[in-house]
Specification:
alpha+beta; set domain protein methyltransferase, domain 1; 3 domains; 3-stranded antiparallel β-sheet; 27 helices; 12 strands
Length: 686
């Protein structure tokens, strides 16, 4: 496919304007004061999908200039809500003030189209794609069979959402106009949803921002003073007269909008006192080549939904991830409070925009994040809120102590927290992948696809989305494998087989068998004892190390060396955990961080575990003499609930046929422990 596409959104083989319409448009345009550079022609596209600009000659006498004005559209023929007093002077000011400016612009377009040749803009409107006959290529005009190619994708959901939103907007605006203007019922009833969808699609595929037209130029200030119109009494007119910068509305630029899109085109949109201009760089222009506009860096999903075309090798392609960030915002609020004084008067608000997706309010519950092309999901904007949401009490305190590192959370994740983020991203991507793949059996035949431009658009988009998701999942699995080799990510199976000296392991297995009835890993997992194994291991290992006599270094055997290494590591782990969860075996009252990171159900679960397993351990007779057993079990339960993570087997690329089974893991060796941590010699041997 070509690297550029037609801005008209016209489907191949559908009804399109002809050269006669183009000639009439250009005659009207130039007679109205418009200017198209003499070396530029409006020519039909090779694929029959509308028109574009072609440079037919080298530009005499202008090649020494860096910039060239390609087209100039006078302000007087720019189409916007400022045409209301001339197109629909009977619309009441109360309705105008109560209706969104974009919706208003669509109704202005409808009214102008209904006026036919009586409209000042008839030569322009007749060049636009038609309401009927399937002239548009956006998914809102696709048949159900054509839409089957995007079923399961975000584009499909966006299409349905936009369709419902437009129906809702149309019905609401039309009903409210009928209510305040019943004497115009026969006229208003002619406003059909078909016309509204046409107008909305015209704007989505070819509108420009409000700042392309300057106020109080070439008679445009007269719109606020047109006698006998309701518009002059509206808030819109007053805001326009006051040059209110917050007044925003879409505008249409006749002829200007014929330029097709290339993301590589170096052009400038430049409004002046008299017109809106398209400025190009002369060294980008080639005789016989097309002259492009640049709509900005848009993904194919945006281009298909809004314009009805795609780009091959689009560097802006992305997959959108929806995440509920409400919990992240609560934790972020705590960090704000805790570090407000630590910044010595620096405005904390300067840091917050870097936390969340730029341009989106922090009070939104759900945010949309883009995963770009071949991007590692852990470097995407989604990683930061996910990191905050999965931050446990220990990590949250550390982050609050280092506020300047907050904007870099996505690239500085602790392994435990990073594993939580990795798992969350993988679950989202896998779910979306399965949703798209679930529609495989509903796809049309290859013959139908080959005969339909819309189906080809849909299939290309579907494939691109799957490629982005699959690359993201592969990247996450590769990272998981890398972390497994770099850090000690321990499973319950490892606790029973390899973690610790043989002398302590043997006693631990015996404790597990006596208290839980078996030491078979599969049986323990099936019976839901994964968390109990970690709790038992913490309490048992600490008890054994506390009661093991010291031995002179030069007399240590291999097992005793392992004991010494484990004792050193346990001491550091205990210090780190006690900072977050209170003294081992002692009492601690939950503070705001505990309440934020552990809900009431999790705290109750820890209490239940402690009570349930206390009697089992006491009945085993294997930890005689241990003091404050319940308190130590409760401490261990808190550590396990906060520090362990459930990991699905499909994240491990070594598993050829994953079943979706989960394993509980604990990152027992992290970045800050690698330099002098326990060498895990026994684990390496086995």
């Amino acid at each position: 496919m070509n690297e550029t596409r037609d801005s008209s959104g016209v489907a191949a083989g559908k009804q399109v304007p002809g050269q006669m319409d183009v000639d009439k448009l250009l005659t009207w345009f130039t007679s109205s004061g418009g200017r198209l550079h003499p070396s530029i022609r409006v020519t039909p596209q090779a694929d029959g999908r509308g028109f574009g600009f072609t440079l037919v000659d080298m530009i005499d006498g202008e090649t020494n200039s860096d910039e060239l004005q390609l087209i100039s559209c006078p302000n007087t023929i720019i189409f916007s809500i400022l045409q209301i007093p001339f197109v629909a002077p009977w619309w009441p000011w109360a309705w105008l003030d109560g209706t969104d400016t974009t919706i208003l612009t669509r109704f202005v377009l409808i009214e102008a189209k209904m006026q036919g040749e009586d409209s000042q803009f008839f030569p322009y409107l007749s060049m636009l794609p038609h309401c009927e006959g399937g002239s548009f290529s956006t998914p809102l005009y696709w048949t159900n069979e054509e839409r089957s190619t995007i079923m399961g994708s975000n584009l499909y959901e966006a299409t349905l959402t936009r369709e419902k939103q437009w129906v809702k907007e149309f019905n609401s605006a039309k009903w409210s106009l009928l209510k305040v203007k019943p004497d115009y019922t026969s006229r208003i009833e002619k406003y059909s949803f078909s016309l509204y969808k046409w107008a909305a699609t015209v704007l989505s595929s070819r509108c420009f921002p409000h700042w392309m037209i300057k106020p109080h130029q070439n008679g445009l200030d007269e719109v606020t003073n047109v006698k006998g119109t309701e518009f002059s009494q509206s808030t819109i007119a007053r805001r326009w007269a006051a040059q209110d910068p917050s007044l925003k509305f879409p505008v249409l630029l006749p002829v200007f909008d014929l330029a097709n899109h290339s993301p590589n085109a170096r052009v400038t949109w430049r409004p002046s006192n008299e017109s809106a201009g398209l400025i190009g760089l002369t060294n980008d222009l080639v005789a016989g080549g097309e002259v492009f506009n640049n709509y900005g860096q848009k993904s194919n999903e945006e281009l298909i939904l809004g314009y009805g075309f795609d780009l091959a090798l689009n560097a802006a392609n992305s997959f959108l991830i929806a995440i509920d960030v409400s919990l992240a915002k609560e934790k972020l609020q705590y960090i704000r409070i805790l570090i407000a004084g630590a910044l010595s008067g620096r405005d904390i608000q300067t840091l917050l925009p870097q936390i969340m997706n730029p341009g989106t309010p922090l009070d939104d519950a759900t945010k949309i994040f883009a995963l770009r092309g071949k991007q590692d999901p852990l470097t995407s904007a989604a990683a930061t809120p996910l990191s905050l949401m999965s931050t446990n009490a220990r990590e949250l305190r550390l982050r609050a102590a280092n506020p300047l590192a907050i904007p870099n959370l996505a690239t500085r994740l602790p392994t435990r927290n990073g594993l939580e983020v990795l798992r969350a991203l993988a679950k989202v991507l896998r779910k979306d992948h399965d949703r798209i793949r679930s529609t495989d059996n509903n796809l049309p035949s290859q013959a139908d696809i080959d005969a339909s431009y819309h189906m080809q658009l849909g299939m290309r988009h579907r494939q691109t989305q799957l490629e982005i998701i699959e690359h993201g999942l592969a990247s996450l699995k590769q990272t998981f494998t890398s972390w497994q080799s770099q850090h000690k990510i321990v499973t319950t199976r490892a606790l029973l087989r390899t973690i610790g000296p043989r002398s302590i392991l043997k006693k631990f297995r015996k404790l597990v068998h006596r208290t839980l009835g078996t030491r078979d890993e599969d049986a323990l997992h099936e019976n839901g004892h994964d968390e109990a194994l970690f709790m038992f291991w913490i309490v048992h290992t600490m008890h054994e190390l506390d009661t093991t006599d010291d031995v002179e270094l030069d007399k240590l055997n291999e097992d005793q060396k392992d004991v010494l290494e484990l004792r050193s590591w346990i001491a550091r782990m205990r210090l780190k955990m006690e900072t977050a969860y209170g003294p081992y075996g002692g009492e601690r009252k939950d503070d705001i961080v505990d309440e934020l990171c552990r809900g009431a159900e999790e705290r109750a679960e820890a209490e239940l575990h402690a009570s349930e397993y206390e009697s089992l351990i006491e009945g085993s007779g294997l930890l005689d003499g241990i003091e404050n057993l319940k308190a130590k079990l409760l401490w261990a339960a808190r550590v396990v609930i906060e520090e362990t993570i459930w990991i699905e087997d499909w994240l491990d690329p070594r598993i050829e046929e994953p079943s979706g089974e989960q394993a509980l893991v604990w990152v027992m060796e992290d970045e800050d422990e690698q330099a002098d941590g326990w060498k895990w010699s026994r684990a390496r041997q086995e």
